[in-house]
Design brief:
379 residues; alpha/beta; Aspartate Aminotransferase, domain 2; 2 domains; 7-stranded mixed β-sheet; 13 helices; 43% helix
Length: 379
């Protein structure tokens, strides 16, 4: 028997309290009990997003929430600047094109972060853009972009809305929506929230809602003006993922008990310890500005990332992720987003040491774990 450890960048392990509440008798989503739960989750989401705006809970993935962010706050033919540099950053340009927008791609080498200077130059050339999209924490590369500085550049250089994919950033990095004047911020339930996939979250600024009135994209299920009205009544426009909403209330309470700073600090420590461990084992980080959600590490050319991922799962019972696109055979990704602690990091690094050694890589057993433990002990 192997005990499985889910250490991929998402979905992430579900805490016991959330699992237990989802196992209870289902409740009716139009009754008073559900309205009470919605009121609690609405308040908790505002706290986490650091916003006074309504944070909508949508029954979809994070990608669905971002599609809604584009279709509700822009119009066909308008110019959208899509920051790439990874699979998920590039996805938003694909969504924009699907809805007839004039998309300007900001191409970045995978592993590199966008600088305010580069974005400023793009905005100087395209000052008629109505939206700039950014994936704050790029899960495919382990990069965290300087969100606050980039948002400031958008405001100084244009009248565009600043739309941020915070799917692996909210609850991991500071994402002060109101203070940083983010216009659209989205997240997903299966990441830092540690609950099953099924809910996407979206908050929009007053400036964004003003533009919603003139948006001409086709929309029905993702008509956010209708959804906003219903959620202010502690309801949803359509049938929600009831069990996942129940779990959301539990994990938001856990997050509040830990405190926002405690939540961010735990993710920082887990990320730093993991990076220290993989570097001690001779692997190289892909990202020049690493995210706290996932560690993306390049393996030596003589080895296959796919083999490492497979052996981690089959021999060690530890599930990590491989690379994507051109990095499929050269990159491994270890997730530490969600309800992880130091013991989880020690487990994944110990398993990685064993697998690398079995494959013939020259590693000193215990070196990766020791490096991580030094971070946790503050040495």
């Amino acid at each position: 028997m192997k005990k499985m450890h889910l250490m991929a960048p998402g979905p992430t392990p579900v805490p016991e309290a959330a699992r237990l509440v989802m196992a209870r008798q289902l409740i009716h989503h139009r009754g008073p009990q559900f309205k009470e739960i919605m009121a609690e989750t609405r308040a908790g989401l505002k706290w986490l997003f650091e916003t006074e705006s309504e944070v909508l809970s949508l029954t979809c993935s994070g990608t669905g929430a971002f599609e809604a962010g584009i279709t509700n706050f822009t119009s066909r033919g308008e110019k959208l600047i899509a920051v790439g540099g990874g699979k998920f950053g590039e996805r938003w340009g694909k969504v924009g094109r699907a809805f007839g927008m004039n998309v300007v791609d900001v191409e970045l080498e995978w592993g590199k972060a966008l600088t305010p200077e580069r974005l400023g130059a793009v905005l100087d050339e395209h000052d008629d853009a109505t939206m700039v999209t950014l994936t704050a924490s790029e899960t495919s590369t382990g990069v965290f972009h300087p969100v606050e500085e980039l948002g400031r550049t958008v405001r100084e250089k244009s009248n565009a809305l600043f739309a941020v994919d915070g799917i692996t950033a909210v609850g991991v990095h500071k994402m002060a929506m109101d203070k940083w004047e983010i216009d659209v911020l989205v997240a997903g339930s299966q990441k830092a929230f540690g609950i099953p996939p099924g809910l996407g979250f979206l908050a929009a600024s007053d400036r964004a809602w003003e533009r919603a009135a003139s948006s001409d994209h086709p929309k029905f299920y993702f008509d956010l003006q209708r959804e906003l009205k219903r959620q202010k009544e502690n309801q949803t426009a359509f049938t929600p993922a009831i069990s996942v909403v129940l779990a959301l209330r539990e994990v938001l309470a856990m997050m509040k008990d830990e405190g926002r700073q405690g939540l961010l600090e735990r993710h920082r420590l887990n990320a730093e310890a993991t990076r220290a461990g993989v570097k001690a084992l001779g692997l190289t980080l892909l990202s020049e500005q690493p995210a706290r959600s996932v560690t993306a590490a390049l393996v030596p050319s003589a080895f296959s990332a796919r083999d490492i991922v497979a052996r981690m799962r089959e021999n060690q019972g530890v599930v990590i992720a491989g690379g994507q696109a051109d990095l499929a055979t050269s990159l491994i990704r270890i997730g530490h987003i969600g309800f992880f602690d130091s013991s989880d990091i020690v487990v994944v690094l110990g398993a990685l040491e064993q697998v690398l050694g079995d494959l013939g890589m020259d590693v000193e057993m215990g070196s990766g774990v020791a490096a991580a433990q030094e971070v946790f002990s503050g040495r």
